[in-house]
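Human: Here is a favour to ask of a fellow structure person. Comparing notes only helps if you start from a blank page. I am asking you to supply a protein in sequence and structure-token form. Write it directly below this note and I will take it from there.

Assistant:
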Amino acid sequence: MKYSKYISILVIFIVALSLLACLWGIITNSNEKLGEYDFKSIRGETIKINGSGLYRYESADQKLSLKVHDPITLFLGVPLLIISLILALKRNIKGRLLLTGTLGYFLYTYISYAFLRMYNELFLVYVMLMSASTIAFILCMMSFDIEKFCSYVKPKMPIRFIGGYQILLAAGLMTTWLPGIMDSLANGNPPIDLDHYNSLGYEALDLGFIVPALIISAILVLKRKPLGYLLSSVIIMLSISMNLLISVLTVFQVLDGMEMPILLMVMFPIFTVITGICLGMLLRNIKEPSNSI
């Protein structure tokens, strides 16, 4: 694998810093509400602030999200990163795809922590994780010979199912985020989930990067383009972690007494299952090359 030395160093660095960030967040993210207090935002809304632990300046509504995100990164993301690196170093093409997709998850996660979270003691750790994940992800993508990649895909690859699912997932993300944004623009009121934050960060990431990537990847794979196979493989593996995160968060929010739209409660668990099916299809229909590509 090209750049294996640099990728290995970066992954070890990411694992070490992720362990620090996740454990610090989990240990200090208390379930108690003793530290919560009201804060009047610049838009005149009264927001309840968490008030304790590493995420003390986050809104109380975000506390549950962070409570779920750190354990998933710790117990799913970090082990996947280690396992996929070991497989990738053995010149396993599926391991390399899994490594690239997992790095995409870490890239997404720590971009959001660096830019969207309220400033805390781990800010520089988030910046380093974002930087290392970005570089490692780019190196992994560059390590593939895109033209040769097509030859390792079996002819029976169900591209219509995989491409159609990616379009469906893009539509699901737009359905999740756009109604609230459009309602805010139409009525001149702050979006419901804005709280005391400056902007809608996750919405911007999903609508600005994930949705276009899903659509472009779907179009390319439906046309049987080599880049489409690679992008679809990486995006499907990234989607596993993201859909699982949203599904688990939705369950916790319901158990916590929050009112959730029925569509949201059903949509992302279904997406998680379908993504798993797509992942299985991809792994069954990619042949291991005789040498690295």
Residues 35 and 52 are 5 Å apart (CA to CA).
